[in-house]
Design goal:
Blueprint (H helix, E strand, L loop, with lengths): L7 E6 L9 H15 L3 E8 L14 E6 L13 H4 L4 H7 L6 E4 L17 E5 L3 H11 L3 H17 L8 E4 L2 H11 L3 E2 L18 E5 L5 H14 L7 E6 L4 H8 L5 E5 L3 H10 L2 E4 L9 H9 L2 E4 L1 H4 L9 E2 L3 H12 L5 H14 L2 H13 L6
Parallel strand pairs: 1-2, 1-4, 2-3, 4-5, 5-6, 6-7, 8-9, 8-11, 9-10, 11-12, 12-13
Helix pairs in contact: 1-14, 4-5
């Protein structure tokens, strides 16, 4: 049995989770918020490397501590993955030892002290945001810069080795059923706990626009490649309806390339959250192609919860438990056929509302926060 104080929890975040503007930190921020809302004392530990200290985090955590990442290039020579070794603050270990609260390490990134003797009597969980070595191997496949590609390949190898430390975790909290199957088979532990995303549950009318939307972080090569695939392999320039590409930080060269494609496509760079939600909500179709089957994409969740018709490929939804909520296309011909059918299909708001209700049951934040504390309490000492 473990010595645990179930009235609080330590959350060790790989990054400062505010603003919550990309997948991993969306999950961390709203997990903290939900835990606090059910009465848990949340002590948040953040590795800070550019986002700065954020006073807003005190709205979702009772205490917030910040630690610097060590960026010494010699750490690249370590057998421990750089994303882990650079987050090895001794001060973190001291702060974790101040009480008997359970500990949740966010991502393999923060697991340097997993298995440390100082924590051996504590409940320690790991929120596995991906099978991380698979994710880094996928990054290597699409990275054009050979130095970065080499880094991703080496990091993937080290991550696969370091992942063995998961045997010291009391529980592994997976973001998809597929990832959970992997951890169950390899470590005989794991619980699927859906990502914490409020999804802006709305009951307004959807799909009222006459355009098709692709949205995502356009500074990420995966998303840029997806847009290029849409425009070069799928889109028929003779179609009368528009294509909108929306997302943050597209490169100048990518924006220029989009401008050369024709007037049927427009790029909305760095939209506000309100503008992006409007674009998702009003799009006749949300296009959701990806070539990287790792973890879960928050843009898929946002489109399903807030948008109208969603058209994805198998790679986007496979293993997520959300396959039934999307129309599926994999070949260019299938994409074109589905786009033409859906653009002419009347909106069925009752179908959209039913989908939202089913999603709400899966992604209920307080229910899933309670589940985390129940997992920790199973190890509660009786003395």
């Amino acid at each position: 049995m473990k010595s645990i104080d179930p009235s609080g929890i330590h959350i060790v975040s790989f990054d400062v989770p505010y603003p919550f503007d990309y997948g991993g930190v969306i999950d961390v921020y709203h997990r903290c918020k939900a835990l606090k809302e059910i009465g848990v004392r949340v002590i948040l530990h953040c590795y800070e490397y550019g986002r700065g200290k954020q006073p807003n985090l005190l709205e979702v955590a009772d205490e917030v501590y910040y630690y610097a990442r060590e960026k010494n290039p010699f750490l690249l020579l370590s057998p421990i993955p750089f994303i882990v070794r650079s987050r090895a603050s001794g001060l973190l270990l001291k702060n974790l030892a101040k009480n008997q609260y359970p500990i949740l390490f966010e991502g393999i990134h923060t697991c340097y002290f997993l298995g440390n003797n100082v924590l051996k009597k504590r409940w320690v969980g790991v929120r596995a945001h991906n099978v991380e070595h698979d994710y880094y191997n996928e990054l290597a496949k699409i990275e054009p810069n050979w130095k970065k590609r080499l880094f991703f390949k080496l990091e993937a190898f080290k991550l696969a080795q370091f992942e063995r430390q998961f045997k010291f975790a009391d529980e592994l909290l997976s973001v998809t059923p597929k990832d959970n199957d992997y951890f169950q088979k390899k470590y005989q532990k794991g619980v699927y706990i859906p990502v914490f995303n409020p999804l802006n549950w709305g009951e307004v009318e959807r799909g009222t626009g006459d355009y098709v939307l692709f949205h995502g972080n356009l500074s990420v090569m995966e998303n840029e490649n997806a847009v290029r695939y849409i425009l070069t392999e799928i889109w028929d320039k003779k179609w009368s309806f528009k294509l909108i590409i929306a997302g943050k930080e597209p490169s100048k060269s990518f924006v220029s390339w989009l401008a050369e494609q024709g007037t049927f496509v427009s790029c909305i760079a760095n939209p506000s959250n309100e503008k992006l939600n409007q674009l998702i909500r009003e799009a006749k179709i949300n296009l959701l192609p990806t070539f990287q089957n790792t973890g879960i994409k928050h843009k898929l969740l946002n489109a399903l919860a807030n948008g109208g018709y969603c058209l994805a490929n198998t790679t986007m939804v496979e293993g997520t438990g959300l396959e039934d909520f999307c129309h599926i296309a994999n070949t260019p011909e299938e994409w074109r056929k589905n786009i033409l059918e859906l653009i002419q299909t009347p909106n069925n708001q009752s179908v959209f509302d039913e989908r939202t209700a089913r999603l709400h049951a899966i992604f209920d934040l307080k229910t899933n926060a309670k589940l985390i504390m129940q997992l920790a309490s199973k190890h509660l000492t009786q003395d």
